[in-house]
Recover the amino acids of this structure.
């Protein structure tokens, strides 16, 4: 499994190649959180929970690349993504052909994802989508992620520490929270075929990390956006997960948070701040 340094290097090169083709994509997954935590820690950004209470940065072995919807419906731009992957030596994986690629030299996996894709300008199914119309160049699909709401509008731009690479657009806390809450829910039910205790703990620690690293300005904006989007099914279900798994002190989500190797080092006042802020962001709404 490649260390985080390899996926990071792979992302920087891919992002530069795409920017040279005037294509902007959004980085998600563990690598996005890794980069955000490094940036906010180094620059001592004032956040909801102080950096000394954050869990250690989590290593990651792959790169989650999200295509904004505006790119997904643009055949020419979509084709440039596939061209960049080919130029950099990526080959489609056997398991998830044409939306997951493997670096032939690095062994790094790159997943091509997108947000909700229910639109007449898009063709595909729940596993893979692409723009309607003739394809340009080699095959490429994007794996839809319905929880990645407001992906483009809420993305956070991080400057590069190395002037030879362009800035990185990272999924914003609204998108991250919904994705992590639903992944936690999918993985947390013993007896279910998708149950994975380690993944459950990772999602819980990442949820803490996302809330902890938010600035006050981000918190206010995201809370307002959640209120605007409260009619969306994934927002309503996300609020339900918060209530059932992350509110009571003996709830399963908080048990998973504390069971993670980094969780035992988080001060109790920081855990309580996480509980309160998460409930404030995603309250269960009636009517």
């Amino acid at each position: 499994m490649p260390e985080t340094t390899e996926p990071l290097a792979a992302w920087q090169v891919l992002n530069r190649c795409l920017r040279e083709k005037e294509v902007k994509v959004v980085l998600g997954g563990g690598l996005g959180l890794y980069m955000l935590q490094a940036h906010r820690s180094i620059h001592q950004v004032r956040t909801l929970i102080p950096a000394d209470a954050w869990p250690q940065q989590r290593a990651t072995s792959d790169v989650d690349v999200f295509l904004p919807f505006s790119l997904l419906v643009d055949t020419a731009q979509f084709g440039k993504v596939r061209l960049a992957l080919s130029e950099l030596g990526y080959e489609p994986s056997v398991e998830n052909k044409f939306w997951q690629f493997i670096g032939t030299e690095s062994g790094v996996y790159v997943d091509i994802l997108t947000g909700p894709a229910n639109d007449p300008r898009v063709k595909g199914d729940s596993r893979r989508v692409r723009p309607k119309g003739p394809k340009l160049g080699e095959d490429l699909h994007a794996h839809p992620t319905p929880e990645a709401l407001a992906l483009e509008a809420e993305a956070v731009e991080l400057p590069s520490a190395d002037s030879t690479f362009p800035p990185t657009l990272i999924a914003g806390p609204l998108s991250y929270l919904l994705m992590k809450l639903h992944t936690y829910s999918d993985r947390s039910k013993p007896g279910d075929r998708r149950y994975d205790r380690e993944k459950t703990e990772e999602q819980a620690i990442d949820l803490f990390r996302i809330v902890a690293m938010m600035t006050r300005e981000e918190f206010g904006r995201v809370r307002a956006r959640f209120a605007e989007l409260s009619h969306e099914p994934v927002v309503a279900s996300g609020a339900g997960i918060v209530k059932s798994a992350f509110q009571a002190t003996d709830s399963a989500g908080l048990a998973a948070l504390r069971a993670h190797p980094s969780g035992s080092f988080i001060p109790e006042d920081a855990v309580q701040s996480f509980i309160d802020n998460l409930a404030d962001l995603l309250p269960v709404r009636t009517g």
Q: What stands out?
A: The mean pLDDT is 93. Residues 5-169 form one domain. The CA atoms of residues 113 and 173 lie 17 Å apart. The first strand starts at residue 26 and ends at 28.
